[in-house]
Design brief:
about 400 residues; alpha/beta; Aspartate Aminotransferase, domain 1; Aspartate Aminotransferase, domain 2; 2 domains; seven-stranded mixed sheet; three-stranded antiparallel sheet; about 15% strand; binds pyridoxal-5'-phosphate
Length: about 400
């Protein structure tokens, strides 16, 4: 039986997997020790759980456990990576390269660093939302200390060519950070194969709890130095002071284990649901435009513009379907998303964009229902839009 409302906003956040919750629960009420407590069993069992979680996170991305720093989420990880590297390497150079379509938690720290005297180059993307490693090469200067390129975009789901970018960064001795928040747990990622030096992730984007994430920081070849954002007890090798949130970290670890075990089959299932949604919508409606590269994208992402529709008006009539227009993080604003504008989308098409995020808990039944539900709402709104009527009138109707 279909249960309403239906959730298809899995880029904003995901439902915590019940298996993750189950793993977390004992660490609230029974095993509640501080993992830094060295003098009793409460501390030891918490420390052991954190150690296991650290191994699970590391294993998922091909890292070593000592290269994982627990944080409060990807916003903090991105801030730590960008400011931490900038401040630690400022005697080496003051130039950072990134991309216009990055998440605000990358763009805003870069703005802050610009105010401090760093120079930032933001690369433009092509019509599909992608950059090339040649663009990165052309942007590098002797002053460049860091390149930051997201793995998968949170709005249009496109996958940047990390391996090629990692290769040119390595050749030029420039550090390479990736915000992999949308990619982790959805597609295979290996920091060695990709030549990544720093990688940000957040548990709640892949069925873990909110409020916990990690930053991978390469320890050899090269050893990446970082200046911490927080000073205090010296936790996490002095890079992130503060008592470790054991239950959240255990949840992150469990989410990583589940992702590693199930990613392959899940990606296939989610991709086929996404393709079914796209087939259904584009066969029932005319003038539906797919935003972002057609194939180089996350399995669960579908971003479409319904021409002649305002997405904010559409979402009001889609009371029983949780999707988003533009970026969730800036949906309070009426400005169209900076990502869609960067693709070169006209403003009215950017305003007409809806992001569907299919995830682990979506079913075929939900997708089939959503197709009809959305198609009906779009058709109804277009019927009330004179511009659509005019463009689709028969010649006779037009004369009349
Ligand atoms: C969600 C998201 C973030 C921020 O993650 P938080 O856990 O909310 O801090 C950063 N980057 C991308 C690409 C995201 O999708």
């Amino acid at each position: 039986m279909l249960r309403l409302p239906v959730y298809m906003d899995n880029h904003a956040t995901t439902r915590t997997d019940p298996r993750v919750v189950e793993a977390m629960l004992p660490f609230f009420t029974e095993k509640y020790g501080n993992p830094a407590s060295r003098t009793h069993v409460f501390g030891w069992e918490a420390e052991e759980a954190v150690k296991q979680a650290r191994q699970a996170v590391a294993a998922l991305i091909g890292a070593g456990p000592r290269e994982i720093i627990f944080t409060s989420g990807a916003t903090e990880s991105n801030n730590l990576a960008l400011k931490g590297v900038a401040w630690a390497y400022r005697e080496r150079g003051n130039h950072i390269v990134s991309v216009v379509t990055e998440h605000p938690s990358v763009l805003d720290p870069l703005k802050r660093l610009e105010q401090e005297g760093f120079r930032v180059t933001l690369l433009p993307v092509d019509r599909d939302g992608l950059i090339s490693s040649d663009q990165v090469v052309d942007a590098l200067t002797p002053q460049t200390i860091l390149v930051s390129v997201m793995a998968a975009n949170n709005e249009i789901g496109v996958l940047q060519p990390l391996e090629a970018i990692g290769k040119v960064c390595k050749e030029r001795g420039v550090l390479f950070h990736t915000d992999a928040t949308q990619a982790v747990g959805k597609i295979p990622l290996d920091v060695e194969a990709l030549g990544v030096d720093l990688l940000s992730l957040s548990a709640h984007k892949f069925y873990g709890p909110k409020g916990v994430g990690a930053l991978y920081v390469r320890k050899r070849n090269p050893y990446v130095r970082l200046m911490p954002l927080l000073d205090g007890g010296g936790h996490e090798q002095g890079l992130r002071s503060g008592t470790l949130p054991t239950p959240l970290i255990v949840g992150l670890g469990r989410a990583c284990e589940l992702a590693q075990a199930e990613m392959h089959d899940e990606a296939e299932r989610v991709r086929s649901l996404r393709d079914r949604l796209w087939q259904g919508l584009s066969s029932r409606l005319d003038e539906v435009i797919l935003n972002g590269h057609p194939t180089r994208r996350l399995p669960g992402n579908l971003n479409v513009s319904f021409r002649y529709i305002r997405a904010d008006a559409l979402l009001v009539s889609l009371r029983n379907l949780a999707v988003s227009s533009g970026s969730a993080c800036t949906s309070a604003e009426v400005r169209p998303s900076h990502v869609l504008l960067a693709l070169g989308l006209e403003e009215d098409l950017a305003h007409a964009s809806v992001r569907f995020g299919i995830g682990r808990f979506n079913t075929e039944e939900e997708v089939d229902w959503a197709i009809e539900y959305v198609a009906e709402a779009v058709t109804k709104l277009r019927r009330m839009n004179p511009l659509y009527q005019m463009a689709h009138a028969t010649p006779v109707e037009r004369e009349a």
